[in-house]
Amino acid sequence: MSRLGNRADWADDEEFDDPSALPAQQVITNKDGTKTVISYRFNDENKKVKVTRRIKTTVVRENVNPQVAERRSWAKFGLEKGHAAGPSFDTTSVGENIIFRPSINWKAQAKEAEKDGGEKGSMKDQLKDKKVKCRICSGEHFTARCPFKDTMAPVEEPTSGAGGDADEDKAGALGSGSSSYVPPHLRKGGAGGGEKMGGRFEKDDLATLRVTNVSELAEEQELRDLFERFGRVTRVFLARDRETQRAKGFAFISYADRGDAALACEKVDGFGYRHLILRVEFAKRST
Amino acid sequence: MRPILLSGHERSLNQIKFNRDGDLLFSVAKDKIVCAWWSANGERLGTYNGHQGAIWTVDVSPNTVILATGSADNTVRLWNIKTGECVKVWDFPTAVKRVAFSPDGSKLLAVTEKRMGFLGTIAVLDIAYGDNLNEQADEPSLRITCTESKATVAGWSFLAKYIIAGHEDGSVSQYDPKSGEQVENIQAHEFDHQINDLQFSPDRTHFITASKDKSAKLMSARNLAILKTYTSDTPLNTATITSKKDYVILGGGQAAMDVTTTSARQGKFEARFYHKVFEDEIGRVRGHFGPLNTIDIHPAGTAYASGGEDGYVRVHHFDKGYFDFMYEVEREQLRK
């Protein structure tokens, strides 16, 4: 079969051609009046790509002013002199699609769109229903602004006659009848200064651990999970940066029972957590 | 609609103008060249080179034969539109801020700046369309001197019956183009808020002014009556009256010197569409990242182009929604 031998398989036909040459463009006229144009080109990876386009030709007849028609034949001049016909890429481009629908209540619609799209708007929406609530007196102000800040512990503690406390405080400020000045922490019968800051946490100081060398990526819940195995944890406080919301590297864990705290202190100190080794010790009084 | 962006200029646009058939668009900017574009596809036909300073203004003769430009190099130049040649140069003592052809193209007015001891003037030049375009009168046929407040913009009313000028102090005045007498002067805008643009309706019976006082006014050319007021929230640089639909387009934005301190969102760099009769704002088209300095409408009302401080001209061909929009009363009127 010598004839078959020197003749390439039909499937390999193209391989034997010059690989850089492309098959000629084919134009097929379809029955419905459209044309199918099959052309070949090389893509960016130097692969041969077959492009099939179906083209429907519509003749749009436009009557223009003869002057306009005459102008169409004008040659380019100035900086464009000698340039080929058709828009050039360095001066003319097509912008992104703009949807322009005139409407009567345009302003209201635009506002709505802004609300939906704008991040600022959505944040505002989230906070719209939030009310500021004081942790001390449940009033509508920030805890730091509470008028009873100095006199009352946070809400959880039974509030005992706010009015009475305020009166007492007033008396203290004026010096309780005597002429001498009474410092705030000695007013109200000489209650400890720490009480104002800590309130009910005062007693927990005994069972509070200070954890340092905490990873920046730590989460309160993770710490809780970690420490809860030694006993009931009443409070987990993870210091965070105000701006970045990342952990600052230390935390306080309060236990209900001091025994549990001691056990946790012993076990977790030196524990590897998130690539850092935790250091745990009993919290010291901050005063 | 997909705008066509024309980036033939390196500096901020000052004025753009369609010819009367709407197939060509001319643009001038602070760089010293004039560009001619095909409005349909944004192809640049050519440039007219020769000015030595920023070009403030351009106008095209009604028969699209002669192009007039006014520049900061104190000249008005006439150009052969087809070939790009400069056919005539008029020298003035100060910069030329506005040129405008009369409706029949036989006259050209030029508004000159008040500077260096020279008062602002409006000069009227006769234009000849002979075989040789170089043959033009050397001297203006009329000079109107603005003694009170300099004119910033001017144009011709219907049948070239009046020259209407907008002034630096916010007033609009009407001059007789034969005698040069001031017929009327009306404080249309807030005092000392310059009128930045003045464009006529297609039949030139009324015109719109755009002012720094953040409003645009539709005024009658016959008696300077204020017909409509369109208020916006930003100083306006330009305003135009659309043909085919009863809209007006206003353009403006934060003044160029304040732009660096504002973001594109706050800058209000949008073309604002108002209904001409009802004075309602009906939409905005964004795209520019600088204030809009100039807007022109295709004479057939099918497209508009805007030029901005950012150096771009954007040509917008309106799509169906634009033409379909109608107020309920308009629709009812149509049904009857």
From TrEMBL, chain A:
Pfam families for the chain: eIF3g, RRM_1
CDD domains attached to this UniProt entry: eIF3G (cd12933), RRM_eIF3G_like (cd12408)
PROSITE patterns: RRM
Primary residence: cytoplasm
Domain RRM span(s) in chain numbering: 207-285
Alphabetical UniProt keywords: Cytoplasm, Initiation factor, Protein biosynthesis, RNA-binding
Region called Disordered, residue ranges: 1-28, 153-198
GO BP annotations, alphabetical order: formation of cytoplasmic translation initiation complex
GO CC, alphabetical: eukaryotic 43S preinitiation complex; eukaryotic 48S preinitiation complex; eukaryotic translation initiation factor 3 complex
UniProt-annotated location(s): Cytoplasm
KW Zinc (keyword) present: no
InterPro entries listed in its UniProt record: eIF3_g, eIF3g_N, eIF3G_RRM, Nucleotide-bd_a/b_plait_sf, RBD_domain_sf, RRM_dom
UniProt xrefs under SUPFAM superfamilies: RNA-binding domain, RBD (SSF54928)
GO function term, MF aspect, one: translation initiation factor activity
Entry keyword annotation includes Cytoplasm: yes
Assembly notes: Component of the eukaryotic translation initiation factor 3 (eIF-3) complex.
Stated family: Belongs to the eIF-3 subunit G family.
Described function: RNA-binding component of the eukaryotic translation initiation factor 3 (eIF-3) complex, which is involved in protein synthesis of a specialized repertoire of mRNAs and, together with other initiation factors, stimulates binding of mRNA and methionyl-tRNAi to the 40S ribosome. The eIF-3 complex specifically targets and initiates translation of a subset of mRNAs involved in cell proliferation. This subunit can bind 18S rRNA.
HAMAP family attached to this UniProt entry: eIF3g
Designated name of the protein: Eukaryotic translation initiation factor 3 subunit G
Species the sequence originates in: Penicillium alfredii
Lineage: Eukaryota, Fungi, Dikarya, Ascomycota, Pezizomycotina
Gene behind the chain: TIF35
From TrEMBL, chain B:
WD repeat residues: 6-37, 48-89, 285-315
Key word Repeat present: yes
Keyword terms of this UniProt record: Cytoplasm, Initiation factor, Protein biosynthesis, Repeat, WD repeat
Gene Ontology biological-process annotations: formation of cytoplasmic translation initiation complex
One GO MF term: translation initiation factor activity
Chief location category: cytoplasm
One GO location term (cellular component): eukaryotic 48S preinitiation complex
Transferase in keyword set: no
Similarity comment text for this entry: Belongs to the eIF-3 subunit I family.
Summary of subunit composition and partner proteins: Component of the eukaryotic translation initiation factor 3 (eIF-3) complex.
Function of the molecule: Component of the eukaryotic translation initiation factor 3 (eIF-3) complex, which is involved in protein synthesis of a specialized repertoire of mRNAs and, together with other initiation factors, stimulates binding of mRNA and methionyl-tRNAi to the 40S ribosome. The eIF-3 complex specifically targets and initiates translation of a subset of mRNAs involved in cell proliferation.
Protein name: Eukaryotic translation initiation factor 3 subunit I
Source species: Penicillium alfredii
Classification of source organism: Eukaryota, Fungi, Dikarya, Ascomycota, Pezizomycotina
